[in-house]
Amino acid sequence: MLGLMMDQPLLISDLIRHADRHHGDTEIVSKTVEDGSVHRYTYREAHGRARRLAKALGGLGVQTGDRVATLAWNGYRHFEIYYAVAGSGGVIHTINPRLFPEQIAYIANHAEDRVLCFDINLAPLVEKLAPMLKTVKAYVAMCARAAMPKASIPGLHCYEELLEAQDGRYDWPSFDERTAACLCYTSGTTGNPKGALYSHRSTMLHAYAAALPDALNLSARDVILPVVPMFHVNAWGLPYSCAAMGAKVVFPGQHLDGKSLHTLFEQEGVTMSAGVPTVWLGLLATMKEQKLKFSTLRAVVIGGSAAPPAMIRTFQEEYGVQVLHAWGMTEMSPLGTVCTFKAKHAKWGKEDRYALQNKIGRVLFGVDTRIVDENGKELPRDGKAFGDLQVRGPWIVSGYFKGEGGDPLKKDAAGEAWFPTGDVVTIDPDGYIQITDRSKDVIKSGGEWISSIDLENIAVAHPAVQEAAVIGVRHPKWDERPIVVVVRKAGQELSREDLLKFYEGKIAKWWMPEDVVFVNELPHTATGKLSKLTLRQQMKDYQLPG
Ligand code: AMP
Known about the structure:
The protein is α/β, with parallel strands linked by helices and 546 residues long. The protein is built from 16 helices and 26 strands. The N and C termini lie far apart (74 Å).
């Protein structure tokens, strides 16, 4: 017997309609790309403009299921494109402008993008790309007529003119909630980049789950500044969750340096922000240098790579800002876990609470997990056994766009399908997950695993260390041994011996790095994560001392 409830599809257009109706005067503030000035309007205005854009895209020939790409920073027009494209039945394909042009061309051609919308400071990049893009029929410069780039780009349109030409009479269509809505490509550290294709349903369920108190804890009393780019897994879903909750949103444009961020935090009364550790390193350095404080910020989400323990402490102790350590993947829309406390942790001592915060936390309801050994056998959740983390749930990929890379899922004994994350973890009896490594970064020494993340966390806790990466290098006896590659803080002295001494007493003897290599900078991926793949290539001629 079926239930007698309305069978109403979960559609992204309902988010913006809700925000217009119930939070119509709540602001969306953006630092503009054109001249760095601050643009402000409301959810009501954003909704009106998104509907006009939806109609205009139809005029450009965009049909149901067509991909509309963006090369853009975090701003109000990008937000409108999110809603206009998905709401009208198209698929928004956000592309990272920091990728190499050849990678962008590969992705756009693979996705068969019809239209490409871009921020005007990226016009030189688009001009270079245009001859390589086989399917793009129209380019839209995200600006007013006066700011139109002079670049020679075929089929170029002006965003504001497209909107002005529309009368605003447009009703969002209704369709199956499993319809594709957004497309994001993984960074492709192995093989070609692969497309994760989110549906309206998966995006909506993720938006609900992400807003919950033990997840990102968002409400209509919040002012949220997503530092994480809108081309990095939909800014971790914030443009959707914020509309659902009616939170004020502040978009920083491309100004992500410490000073610009701090100024925006203070001017707009930001209460919560989210980004990768690299961005917070920059902000915290500026804060210290200029003796700044936060007056409204209550929490920051740190994710995308491991939050260094020293960073968690600095935010909480020096600035009174709660850290939410989060973990996820492009393939998971992206949120999987957030580290928040349970009632019993109130009785724990300070150091134990910090130790817990170094873990990536507990899963959001909706994400199921298990850990397996190399034979696929499930391992206990005892906080000790570590193995490959597998996940499943309604906002986790079942395959990649156009079947790229084959079927990624693994079947368990009962025939249930799981997505292998490639992360090596432990899960404790309370459900808290600790990442020890990416499976391809794991260091195996004498048959035992050494956690590169643990060794990096200790290195960055040293006051003279700006950034550190630990990789395994070949060793005739032990197979692999860890070395630590370090960037010193400006003006600080640090020797190999100083750092090795700093490790003493903090790790088992056989985990001790074999060497310390000082460099001026470490390689990063286009999403700001340490690129150990590149680092290993750079270090391929390195020889262990002795
Ligand atoms: P991406 O799909 O590019 O966002 O990369 C996902 C991967 O980033 C995960 O599988 C993890 O290896 C890594 N990652 C994300 N968040 C964290 C975190 N909090 N700690 C450690 N690694 C993380």
